[in-house]
Amino acid sequence: LNKLVVLTTVLLLISSGCITAPKQDPGSPGPAQIGASYSGSELCRFCHPTQHRGWAQSGHARMVVDAKRFPEAVISDFSLPGNPFEVATEFGPDDVILTIGGKWKQRYVVHDPEARAWRLLPAEWITATGSWRPYNADKWNERDYGDLCTGCHNTGYEPKVHAFVEGGIGCESCHGPGAAHIASRNAADLVNPKNLEPERAIEVCAQCHIRGKNVDGKREDALGYVPGEKLLDHYKPLEPNIGQETDAFFADGSSKKHHQQYQDYIQSTHWTKQRMTCTSCHAPHAPTLLVALGNEVCTGCHKPQADVQKHTGQSVVTDCVTCHMPKRATSATEMDIRSHTFKLNQPGPAPKPPYGE
Ligand code: HEC
Ligand code: HEC
Ligand code: HEC
Ligand code: HEC
Ligand code: HEC
Ligand code: HEC
Ligand code: HEC
Question: What torsion, rounded to 10 degrees, do the Cα atoms 178, 179, 181, 182 define?
Fold first, then answer.
């Protein structure tokens, strides 16, 4: 009966034409056909409009966009030298079905019907420089987006049918599959991270903000994990080797590569001594994903430092994050991602001690 209710709701919504961005992606048959217990964020909107409104404007919602329906999601210039079609000559701009990201860089997916695969085009757009950079140009037509990236960039991916329910980080990435809850309207039928112990709550975010390998030994996402479970039963994160620089970490343990916020953060006294989770500073349904703007993210707790001039004895650098979350890891251009270790004496701008209070 529950399934019938959900299906009827889906059909009703589709026929009334009220499904808006972000939409289901091409090549994706949708939850009913996948047989999954995922419903997609659009259905949550009707009963939770406030959370939906903020979320829809966040980077999470717009991570993966159907480029056929929303061509404006493409932020690059395919006519510039270095564009992916110089290598992928059998494809053109009209073949792009998905855009991935765009804040730091943007990558593109095309469908290869013969191989029944989603190919990642062999060049990526670097937003800060407005130019192209080669991306796995030698083996791009051997890689499949579904095998490599979907657990961290899509919601409800089902490898058996090579399809996902939703592009981007939908409600159900953090709350778990929602079909049963939609039918019952009972809070007990999905996960509210607020009710989890800190170790489990932080893992809701860590399932994607991490780098390592799935316990299946192949995938690099945590596919198979569902919020509320123990992430490490599904995933083996890379670990820093303090004192020694490695591929993914500096010698002090801070990340060199991007999407390692979890590995950074569990070194912070915010975690080791206070068990603060990501949501102490990040609001999951706010467009900015932050609980406040600027220094106020910090000064709610760190009142003595709120007078930065007094705290640092100078008035040139006044943002807490410039000194305490220096940009050290790399996504698109060298060191464009902030550190989350909150360790003291991080490399950063002047001044040096002694400080004011
Ligand atoms: C038909 C209406 C309806 C739909 C659709 C719906 N919900 Fe709910 N949701 C509710 C109601 C009613 C409650 C409050 C239940 C209670 O307090 O026991 C609730 C509670 C919740 C809670 C728990 C809040 C708390 O206080 O702990 C979360 C999280 C949640 N919903 C997420 C979702 C997500 C995610 C979706 C989409 C997959 C969704 N809901 C779709 C009606 C709905
Ligand atoms: C990035 C992860 C994430 C996404 C995506 C997300 N949520 Fe949440 N949601 C949370 C967390 C974490 C909490 C608990 C907040 C807290 O600790 O106060 C929460 C709490 C809630 C609650 C309880 C009331 C509240 O606001 O605290 C509702 C209802 C809810 N979410 C609905 C949704 C809906 C609907 C969507 C999609 C439109 C959504 N969430 C997307 C992480 C997420
Ligand atoms: C299913 C994977 C996934 C989950 C779960 C997830 N994230 Fe993300 N997050 C991403 C991706 C992918 C991006 C990049 C989005 C973009 O480029 O705009 C991102 C971006 C962010 C950003 C930067 C946004 C910006 O526009 O600057 C913050 C902050 C963030 N996530 C915090 C969180 C927090 C906090 C949680 C848990 C409550 C969480 N994320 C859960 C995948 C995820
Ligand atoms: C373990 C999870 C994970 C895997 C696997 C993963 N990513 Fe990401 N990716 C993220 C997160 C989280 C972010 C945003 C935070 C950051 O970069 O620090 C991100 C950022 C990005 C960005 C930049 C987004 C922007 O707005 O600029 C692109 C593009 C991207 N990923 C593409 C891919 C592709 C393509 C693959 C597969 C080959 C992939 N990612 C695999 C988690 C992952
Ligand atoms: C919810 C409260 C809270 C918020 C928000 C918060 N902090 Fe903290 N922070 C603490 C507490 C409590 C400690 C002390 C940890 C301990 O027990 O040693 C701390 C410690 C620190 C330390 C010292 C670390 C060390 O190794 O001694 C720095 C630096 C710091 N925070 C910076 C920040 C910055 C920057 C922000 C904003 C981006 C921020 N904090 C946001 C509560 C908070
Ligand atoms: C003590 C506060 C605090 C905590 C806890 C925290 N963050 Fe952040 N995070 C921030 C601030 C502040 C920024 C924004 C910096 C800026 O404005 O550029 C940020 C930025 C980010 C970004 C964007 C990357 C970038 O370089 O701009 C991601 C992704 C992110 N956080 C994920 C997480 C995740 C996942 C967790 C938990 C594992 C977490 N954060 C815990 C304060 C925090
Ligand atoms: C110009 C750089 C700079 C700025 C801006 C800055 N700090 Fe600091 N802060 C430091 C230095 C340096 C220390 C001493 C320890 C260290 O080397 O990190 C420190 C120490 C701290 C500590 C540890 C306790 C203490 O007072 O020694 C906290 C907490 C802290 N800062 C929070 C903040 C907050 C919150 C902001 C923003 C309102 C901020 N800081 C702005 C450089 C800065």
Answer: 110
